[in-house]
Amino acid sequence: MSKPSDQPSLRWDDHTIVTLDQRALPHEQRHLRLSTVDDVITAITTLAVRGAPSIGLAGALGVALSAYAHCSRGITGDGQEAVRADARRISAARPTAVNLAWAVDRALAKLGDGPDAVLNEATVMIDEDRVVNRRMVAHAVEVVRDHCPQRPLRLLTHCNTGRLATAAVGTALGTILALADSGRVAEVLVNETRPLLQGARLTAWELAEAVVPYRVCVDSAAAAAMSQGLVDCVIVGADRITARGDVANKIGTYALAIAAAHHGIPFIVVAPESSRDRSLADGRDIVIEERPDDEVTAYGGIRTTPPGTRAYNPAFDVTPASLITAIVSEHGVHHTSEVCA
Ligand code: MRU
Questions:
Q1: I need a labelling partner for 277 at 20 to 30 A (CA). Which of 43, 55, 96, 331 fits?
Q2: Where in the sequence numbering do the catalytic residues fall?
């Protein structure tokens, strides 16, 4: 059997999408088989499949499911319109990560050539993601080396940006694993990432799997860790990056960037080109997904707040470019600010 880290987080198998159910981790490694567009949308909205690149790839495979359902007996106008309607529903499942609409549109562009062409495009994207991860990580390792010559490093990360969030090693977490592989990591502080605990449940699971030293901290401990000299560098991913380099990422990223700037700690974003949205300049124009109240007002299914309590529950925030030391993609470094130089 291959090592867990060699297995892709999602794949196509006999007209279904097979993916690890991220809601069940770290307790259970349960696979889901998604065979309809509704299955795909539910998996994306409930975060069974999550992370910007992964939801894009699941969305593209979802367009293939729709194409087989509506166009396998020939491409008719009605069939095409049904697939386009499904594609719109998939894209709308989560509005902030631009990778979702990008990948769905790319798969949909092949519809005129039939369902096999749509599926082929989706699987090409999965293969491309592996190459993109590798290149991006190689660039990011160099950037960390330039900004943090000390070793071994104490790194801090937020949310989950590893193999669960992509088709390969990941973005920010892929970089951390590559640094650890070359003996450059003393410890990773993992923000638990309230309210859905992607850091505590998923990043910790990936780091444990890779035998990298880590500790989990509550999100509000990150600034204290920086003030106590426990953090040499912050490395995070992105869901959408505007033309001028403002970055939408998991809620809490902005506070981390402010704290890092205050302490003169490099703040590095690692994300593929498919996370860039050149149609937007200003991060304030990014649509931020609002999630249900009960993600905040309850814990493990048990209410923690008085009855009727409402929540402010944005899934993401926007970090302005001025707070970011470097944005790294498969093309290299895109943006460096003077803040932490
Ligand atoms: O709500 P999530 O878990 O999908 O949020 C994910 C993030 O914010 C990640 O940092 C981002 O998608 C990059 S994943 C390589």
A1: 43
A2: 239
159 lines ligand 1 (CB under 6 A): yes
CB 33 within 8 A of CB 252: no
Q: Give the predicted TM-score (pTM) of the model.
A: 0.96
| DSSP state, residue 199 | I
**Is 50 annotated as belonging to a binding site?**
yes
Q: Would the CB of 193 count as within 6 Å of ligand 1?
A: no
Which residue from 23, 164, 198 has its CB within 8 A of the most atoms of ligand 1, so it is best to mutate? 198
Alpha helix positions (H), the chain: 37-45, 52-71, 77-92, 98-108, 115-147, 172-181, 204-209, 222-227, 253-263, 294-297
Tell me what ipTM this predicted complex has: 0.99
Contact 211, 195 (CB under 8 A): no
- Residue 161, ligand 1, Cβ within 6 A: yes
Which of 9, 19, 99, 239 gets mutated to test ligand 1 (max ligand atoms within 8 A of its CB)? 239
Q: Is 191 in the pocket of ligand 1 (CB under 6 A)?
A: no
Amino acid found at 269: V
Tokens of 83: 């697939």
Strand duo 267-270 + 233-236: pairing: parallel
Does the annotation list 250 as a binding residue?
Answer: yes
Rounded to the nearest angstrom, the distance between the alpha carbon of 53 and the centre of ligand 1 is 8
| Cβ pair 153, 144 in contact under 8 A | yes
* d(C-alpha 107, C-alpha 71), whole Å: 14
Specify the amino acid at residue 92: A
Buried b (16+ CB within 10 A) or exposed e, 181-212: eeebbebbbbbbbbbbbbbbbbbbbbbeebeb
